[in-house]
Amino acid sequence: MLNDFAYLPVTLLTAALGWRVVRKSDLDRRERRAWLLFEASFAVQVVAHSVSLAQNFVLEMPSYPAVSDYLYAAAIPLVVAGLLVFPVARRSRAERFKMLIDSLIVVAGACMMLWYLEIGPIAQTPGADPEVIIFSTAVPVLDLLLVFALITLLLRRPEDAAVGLLGGSMALKVVADSTYTIAYVQFGVAFEPGTWPFVLWAAGAFLSLLAVHRRLVQNDRAEPASRGRRGRLGWLPYVAVALAYGLLAFAARRESLYPMGGMILGAVALTSLVIARQMYAQRENRRLAVTDPLTGLSNRALIAERLDELTRQPLREGRHGAILLIDLDRFKPINDAYGHEAGDAVLKAVATALRTVIRSGDTAGRLGGDEFAIVLPALPSRAAADGIAQRLVDALHTPVIFGDVVLSVEASIGVAFRDETVADTVQLMAHADAAMYAVKRSGRGSYRVYSPELDTNARDAELRRAVENDELVVHFQPVVGLAGGDSLSVEALVRWNHPTRGLLMPGAFIELAEETGAVIPIGEWVLRDACRQAAAWRAEIPEAEPVRLSVNLSARQVMQADLVETIRGILDETGFPADRLVLELTESVVLEPDELTVSRLRALRDMGIGLSIDDFGTGYAALSYLRTLPVSTLKMDRSFVTDIDTDPDAYAVAEAVVRLAQAFRLHVVAEGIETADQARCLADMGCRYGQGYHFARPMPGDALAAWLTAQRQESVSFTR
Question: Is Membrane given among the entry's keywords (predicted)?
Fold first, then answer.
């Protein structure tokens, strides 16, 4: 009675909480069906304990099997059904079939043991009541069903901790049932309440309560486990086979070597050979499944598996994990020029180089195409990853000989470490990818370790916040007439007043802004702020009234459908006149302008806005477009100005650019003038305007206003 009193509150609470689980709104249809079966089992157990308690009050010694015993037995199939229908990850038909075979192997081994130790001796009990025999043999059979459900559950590996606790509860019940019955049948020992089989039954009941409580407090159903984790339990069928043969050998220990001994040894040998062949086939299939057929390296699947293992490992002092992401430079031209056989030869040579630099515990793989990766676990220091990356860079400098051709190959390598900032595999790969593309932008053929400033997404967000937080500033550089040195216009140049890195020049962030699209809000902010300041100069400084304002317009801005409306709105907002504004275009806009681009530019020209081509000569602009685009000015890149005062060839090239612009009836502004001799040479060849450190450096708006005030010469406007 004390035993039943101890069980009843636990089972009642389990059933009550189980009903609340069934009514949870976040359960899907399949999971709700499983928990309904579990709840039915809990309810039957409550009734069973209640009946058992009543029997003990009414009868001093209830007959066996009693009503409560039948109820206990009836609860088992309900739990088995719930465990089998519980939803987990979807699997292919082949995977389900393999899992079924593995489960049946384990159950067959358990069946042999229970038959020898329980079912057989019970069935042969002389003079026993048939009902007792039938029920007593039914109990281990039901336990076999539980074993089947539990093994199937283990092989399916659901992530739901509640189901894991419930499975543990059923495992304790199987152990308690088996030990109780075996002790009685084989040794005549009858355990009393309070002994360890009863403790296991009680612990199982308490685990069921914990399982229900765990599922009740979960907000969302856990996702199914990945398929890769099943392999860790693949040894269970082999253990079952070994136990079965051990039991067979024990049962036949008194038989003579002939004929039973030899047959048993032969069966063991045959089964061992079949198992060995199967294990070899599994290893071979595994090798083929995770190996790149061309290079013999690991493929993407194994690299992903190793990365998952790396990101799941706890961080430890003195132990570092990293990934090297490798992308070959200029690999496509090799394929195009010499064929795919040459490309394959390069890929095989790269694989050989990877094998020479990695350690025994590292994993090198090909992700696809000309992209490779190396997973480096358990590094003694971060410097070790740098050393491996540098050795790989050096190894890939070795040319590849393909027939009569010597092929040069290099690689851009991004290195990312597993640290407290990395949440999962996706983020680790993103860090390595960001570092690798930083190498490509900076010249290729090298490696770089990830740092937060390389994160394109993070930097893009930082750039956009800089616009919102007014961290950008505009500096202005005067453009003067080379003949008289009078001020004609000023160019607005953006700077980033970074809160931690100080004042940053455009080269530190404009290229990234172009890639991510942040250049659009940045460009609009610069235009608005520059027009606002220039309008203030015009109102306060008489000398500033004729000055033109030049502002850069990015290719992405030109592609915006609302470009004209945006610029018109900024001019209306700031009060700056359209005929005093010049928009400087990059040569990428001039390369192949479509009809929409040309129409937008013409609409801007019709508003009175001047258009200029910036850094002319550094790109690939077709000269024919200079006749069709509504531009009025060419800004000659500083590379043409360097050495024109000392090198006749440099002078001749610069003069040709000036004559070309004059042929198209365009004004020329020379950039990067640093000496008086360069200014004189440009004036002699007919270049009328220039800017550079020789005249003035870029300066903040208030300094430019003071500079304009100091200029007491008459300003000369551009002639269209």
Answer: yes
Between CA 491 and CA 611 the distance in angstroms is 13
* DSSP code of residue 33: H
Name every residue whose Cβ is closer than 8 Å to that of residue 518 and which is 6 or more positions away in sequence: 460, 463, 464, 467, 512
Dihedral of CA 625/626/627/630: which sign?
A: positive
- pLDDT reading at 715 higher than 60: no
pLDDT in tens, 300-330: 988 998 898 888 888 888 788 999 999 998 8
Q: Do residues 289 and 231 touch, judged by C-beta distance below 8 A?
A: no
Amino acid (one-letter) located at 66: A
Set out the domains of the chain in order of their start, with CATH numbers: 2-231 (1.20.1070), 300-454 (3.30.70.270), 459-708 (3.20.20.450)
pLDDT given for residue 200 in this prediction: 87
What pLDDT score was predicted for residue 671? 92
Strands 320-329 and 371-379: antiparallel
- State the Cα–Cα distance between residues 624 and 632, nearest whole angstrom: 15
Pair 143, 175: CB distance under 8 Å: no
For 627-636, letters b (16+ CB in 10 Å) and e give eebebbbbbb
Eight-state DSSP code of residue 291:
B
Higher pLDDT, 543 or 652: 652
* DSSP line for 583-615: EEEPHHHHHS--HHHHHHHHHHHHTT-EEEEEE
Bridge pairing between strands 689-690 and 472-481: antiparallel
- What's the predicted TM-score (pTM) here? 0.51
Q: CA-based angle 42:47:52, to the nearest 5?
A: 125
Q: Residue 331 class from Cβ within 10 Å (0-12 exposed, 13-18 middle, 19+ buried)?
A: buried
Helices (H), 474-609: 510-516, 519-540, 555-558, 563-574, 587-591, 595-606
The sign one gets for the Cα dihedral 189, 190, 192, 194 is: positive
135-187 confidence digits (pLDDT tens): 888 888 898 888 888 877 777 666 677 888 888 888 888 888 888 888 888 88
Percent of the chain with pLDDT over 70: 84
CA distance 3 to 586: 87
Buried (b) or exposed (e) across 432-462, using 16+ Cβ within 10 A? bbbbbbbbeeeeebbbbbbeeebbeeebbeb
Q: What secondary structure letter does DSSP report for 691?
A: -
Contact call for residues 210 and 74 (beta carbons, < 8 A): no
| More confident of the two residues 590 and 14 | 14
Task: Encode pLDDT of 440-471 as tens digits.
Answer: 877 788 899 988 777 777 777 888 888 888 89
* Bridge partner list, 495: 473
Of 475, 476, 474, 480, nearest in space to 694 by CA: 480
Question: How many CA atoms lie within 13 Å of 96's alpha carbon, on the beta-carbon side?
Answer: 7
Long-range Cβ contact pairs of 383-386 (< 8 A, separation 24 or more) = 384/320, 385/320, 385/322, 385/324, 385/415, 385/417, 385/449, 386/415, 386/447, 386/449
Distance CA 255, CA 299 (A): 54
Query: DSSP state, 375?
Result: E
Residue 595 near residue 626, CB atoms below 8 Å: no
- Report yes or no: 654 and 682 within 8 Å, Cβ to Cβ: yes
